[in-house]
Amino acid sequence: MVDLEQHPTVLRTRALSPAPAKDALTADLLRSWALEAGADDAGVVSIDRPEIADESEQIRRWLPRAKTLLSFVVRMNREPIRTPARSAANLEFHHKGDHINEIAGRLVAKLERCGVAAVNPAMGFPMEMDEFPGRAWVVSHKRVAEAAGLGVMGIHRNIIHPKFGNFILLGTVVIEAETEEESTPLDYNPCLECKLCVAACPVGAISPTGDFNFQACYTHNYREFMGGFTDWVEQVADSKSASDYRGRVEDNESASMWQSLSFGANYKSAYCLSACPAGEDVISPWLDDRKRHLDEVVKPLQQKVEPIYVAPGTDAEEHVAKRFPHKRIRRVGSGLRPRTARGFLDGVPLTFQPGKSKGLSAVYHFRIGGEESLDATITIEHQQITTCEGLHGKADLVVEADSKTWLEFLRRDRGIAGALLTRKIRLRGSPKLLLAFGKCFPQA
Q1: How far, in Å, CA of 128 to CA of 424, rounded?
Q2: d(Cα 308, Cα 305) in Å, to the nearest integer?
Q3: pTM of the entire structure?
Q4: b or e along 355-383 (b: 16 or more beta carbons within 10 Å of the residue's beta carbon)?
Q5: pLDDT band at 323 (very low <50, low <70, confident <90, very high)
Q6: For 151, which of 90, 142, 272, 322 is 20 to 30 Å away at the CA?
């Protein structure tokens, strides 16, 4: 048996000079390394900062000894993002996205040479898809960037950097060492609330009041990602012939899907980024001539003839028909189907359609049992939805269900009538309230 202490590798390791002390790392040093690696700005925060407290548990799944987060931004070129030619915009997204990952890799390598463990989560895709459609990301780059003072989310839900505006991409490096000093959040929001993102969005995902329709944005902009790709595969599988497939998916859509598969998944819109004039480096032309900005940036996006992907019966479908009748409505599935009872509760605010809830005021109690147990309260009133775990207040409708049956019902794999007859789903209250509830979540 080999004497471990006499092994050549062990002897050489013992003879080496000790690695630099981890406490030699400072926020300024980490920031300078990020800039040297190619970032345009960077900030450092402790993983225990209150602003990102709910991120800590998730991040420590991937690096248990994580203590510090180094957030950084890379500036994108503005004009490629603004053009109606999405090929130019997506080239910029992909190019700068690769650059983000390269920078993060360099930083992790540099830290490793100093004896400090670090992880560089992907800028975007691929992600932890085994958990889809639940949390499929290692770290929320936006949340960390806000805490690190690199910007604040505008009403379009993109981070707006005080200098570069929203023409940025984000990266994060998770580090096991501590730093004494940290960056601080901005004391103002660079968002101008000019509502140009509201005007440019083809699916009405951004409300003038600041509300955000996640499903509308996700179904169109991410058509060739994740759930959109799943829906396309199902269209292929369900087609009885080539002509049947062409009736479901136009030739240009098939070609576009191939481009995404071969080159990299392409965004269909991201017009909210294009239209935004916020940021010190961005704002001057808009301040000087707002009409020119509207004519040269916003209107070409609005006037573009293109397919717009919507889930049938959603607020987005109505918005396109009313606001952009020249654009072609394509009715598709979003692929946002819950896999667990917890996923159902977490997903309800994301798929809720405010316009479909008009006139509804009700409290719902859900008692899910069987393979998975969950009690939840969902309240819908004034075209707003709130959810919480546990049973609270007096319910207008109580839904008791076997978890497997309930998920099959939500995924459209099982009808409600049979589930009620077999008592796998039981109602206490008016069945009309369940129908009204379902109308608020058309074909998720």
Answers
A1: 33
A2: 9
A3: 0.91
A4: ebbeebebbbbbbbeeebebbbbbbbeeb
A5: very high
A6: 90
